């Protein structure tokens, strides 16, 4: 496993510090508001678990699972809902929690889909952002780290469902994904 890693891009210690800051900002911004945190399965679960424990105001948690059509490590743009929210949202302020915003297609779809349900507000939060890769204009309200265009794993992010449990955000050796990206 260690042999598959080219380098640590963001260490567990750096992540911890940043997530604390993000939790504090969210706690300030949503004070007195009815917050529903929408975790996007599976990639966001590790970040979400850390983030919500840094949020000091009441909140509710729910999850969505989405899948972009196509295998490998790139997205085609078409998004499909595999699992939807279980609670109504009209009386809630929604915060979408993502692992990474890459082309922006997934987040754009989620924002449009959730806005159509007429919640009080919808904002977005991601631990990683790859601005160079953006194909659509999408606003990220809370971003942990902007990173260059490397394929990364760990801290919830996978390649072929592996490496999610790594505590650091790591760059995978290109030969591991063998041009499948
Ligand atoms: P976009 O913004 O392109 O992101 O719709 C869709 C999904 O692509 C995945 N993604 C990655 N996953 N390492 C990963 O493990 C990466 O470097 C990476 N870049 C994009 C991710 O699941 C995201 O939700
Ligand atoms: Mg993924």
Automatic annotation (TrEMBL):
Could you tell me which residue ranges the Phosphoribosyltransferase domain spans? 14-159
Q: Which domain of life is it from?
A: Bacteria
Q: What GO terms fall under cellular component here?
A: cytosol
Give the UniProt subcellular location, in the record's own words. Answer: Cytoplasm
Entry annotated with the keyword Metal-binding: yes
Q: Return the SUPFAM superfamilies for the record.
A: PRTase-like (SSF53271)
The similarity comment for this entry is: Belongs to the purine/pyrimidine phosphoribosyltransferase family.
Could you tell me what this protein is called? Answer: Hypoxanthine phosphoribosyltransferase
- Gene source species: Moorella mulderi DSM 14980
């Amino acid at each position: 496993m260690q042999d598959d890693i080219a380098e640590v891009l963001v260490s567990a210690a750096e992540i911890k510090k940043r997530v604390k800051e993000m939790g504090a900002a969210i706690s300030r911004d949503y004070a007195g508001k009815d917050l529903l945190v929408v975790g996007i399965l599976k990639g966001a679960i590790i970040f979400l678990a850390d983030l919500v424990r840094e949020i000091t105001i009441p909140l509710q948690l729910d999850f969505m699972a989405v899948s972009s059509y196509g295998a490998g490590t790139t997205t085609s743009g078409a998004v499909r809902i595999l699992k939807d929210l279980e609670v109504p949202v009209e009386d809630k302020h929604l915060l979408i929690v993502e692992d990474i915003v890459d082309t922006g297609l997934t987040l754009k779809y989620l924002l449009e889909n959730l806005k159509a349900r007429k919640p009080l507000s919808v904002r977005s939060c991601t631990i990683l952002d790859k601005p160079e890769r953006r194909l659509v204009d999408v606003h990220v309200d809370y971003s942990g780290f902007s990173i260059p265009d490397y394929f990364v794993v760990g801290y919830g992010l996978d390649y072929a469902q592996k490496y999610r449990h790594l505590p650091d955000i790591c760059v995978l050796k290109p030969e591991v994904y063998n041009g499948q990206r």
